[in-house]
Amino acid sequence: xxxxxxxxxxxxxxxxxxxxxxxxxxxxxxxxxxxxxxxxxxxxxxxxxxxxxxxxxxxxxxxxxxxxxxxxxxxxxxxxxxxxxxxxxxxxxxxxxxxxxxxxxxxxxxxxxxxxxxxxxxxxxxxxxxxxxxxxxxxxxxxxxxxxxxxxxxxxxxxxxxxxxxxxxxxxxxxxxxxxxxxxxxxxxxxxxxxx
Length: 196
Ligand SMILES: [Cu+2]
Prior knowledge:
There is one protein chain. This protein is an alpha+beta fold. The protein is built from five helices and eleven strands. The strands form three sheets. It has a five-stranded mixed sheet. A hairpin with a 7-residue loop joins β10 and β11. The longest helix has 27 residues, at about 5-30. Bound molecules: copper (II) ion (CU). Copper (II) ion binds near residues 106, 175, 177, 178 and 181.
């Protein structure tokens, strides 16, 4: 009888140790796809902003540059320019697969707090007058984009990127060109977070 509790404890320990690697492996293999979308019209965007600003097939339709400007002015965002999904719960060790399915370059930039990007015109129009420091710095009153890095990824039209997630805390990502394009990632397993 005296041995029974010890046996029970040992059995529990064996079960815990045999389950742990299976969970860890599952987490590492979790691949989550983030689609980056816009709906730019090449003719009007390239005429207004510059050559090759927008490169995409418009057989599904498009939003012209004047239409884009009108929508930012009215709504402080343009719904078709977005990260999908915009909210995500992930396990520790997951990998993000980023796919730009739009016609413009977008950035996928980790920020402490959401803010403006490096284009003053879109910052003001979208109600984000102060740039996130991870997106831009102000030099002599002018916004200067932060250089590309592992935490500040520039993804051209049709491009893709892979981003391993290492942290177990809330993470925020935004586009530094279109500041309303945002993704918030929260840990799936809050119990995990409490262990550290
Ligand atoms: Cu963007």
